[in-house]
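Lab notebook, entry 310. We have the chain sequence and a SMILES string for fe (ii) ion, and the next step in the workflow is to get a structural model of the bound complex before anyone spends time on docking refinements. Request logged below.

Task: model protein plus fe (ii) ion, output structure tokens.
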Amino acid sequence: MQVRFLPGIPACVFMRILHFGDIHFWRLQLDRDFYYPKRILGTANLALRRRHRFPPRLAWDVMAGIAAEEADLVLFSGDMTTMSLEGEFRDAARAFVPLYEKWGERLVVIAGNHDRYSPRSVRLQYFEKHFPRAALPEGRRVFSRQAGEHVSVVGFDASRPFMVRSNGLLDENLERELNSELEAAGGCGRKVLLMGHFPYSYPGGSPGKWHHRLLREEVLARVIARHQPVAYLHGHKHVRWCLRDTRTPRTLCLNCGPAGMSSSSPDSHAGWLTFNLSEDGSLTGLEKVSMAPGGDLLREALRIPPALPG
Ligand SMILES: [Fe+2]
Ligand SMILES: [Fe+2]
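Result returned:
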């Protein structure tokens, strides 16, 4: 188990948390593994479509907007790049500098599937090289951070390269590691926030697309039902939402939506989530924030569904 204590969390009755992800810095470049099937498809998609949906100016404006926010804890749930090119990681690392300067260890970062795009980019450890504070010890995929006296953040990395698809995988090793980390993190009555990249539950109970979902997502639902973290924070599907799943009635599922995408829908347009977490684990004041053209921030309260019986 890897536990680090986060300095500078005030001894207050609640902490304010900012959650963002899917900023997707991109570069239209070839790497030496240009022949990898997903790279061919990804490069064509980026050239034709995706670069218009993720304007670089917007990503930088959003990072500046986040850096100006007040929060005790900032959580990033993955997809800082588009194709795990080293230039993309370099851009992302530069954009994260003001956030690390402001929050230091209180900024917690995990990788998404776009940050584990090809076997070569994983082997060369671009993510770990450019985000050393987010690197895990060899062979580990789960970590804990203790935030103040009453809260633990548990993060896990289910992202790995697939030849053409955008899945994640919660394999048996990861399941074991996650169970033991959650067991320890929730000791002494501590409240746990769990952060991964992929959803296991979708609005309306509809299943995720076969080529885009977390493989063995039902196992994640079982792990969460067993340990009952206050909330499961994720991104991946580029829509902001808050829901409860009947399989995990005590845990709120929060999708922060994309930080870097331009959309006519406010829930898919560049933004993030903020909320308060009290010592007793009450999650209140949930707001979705999006960046209007011109840089103004639109804040809207998001209804929190009550805990379900079970
Ligand atoms: Fe994404
Ligand atoms: Fe993703």
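Notes for the group: Residues 22, 24, 79, 112, 114, 236, 238 surround fe (ii) ion (ligand 1) (CB under 6 Å). Worth checking against the assay data. The chain has a mean pLDDT of 94.
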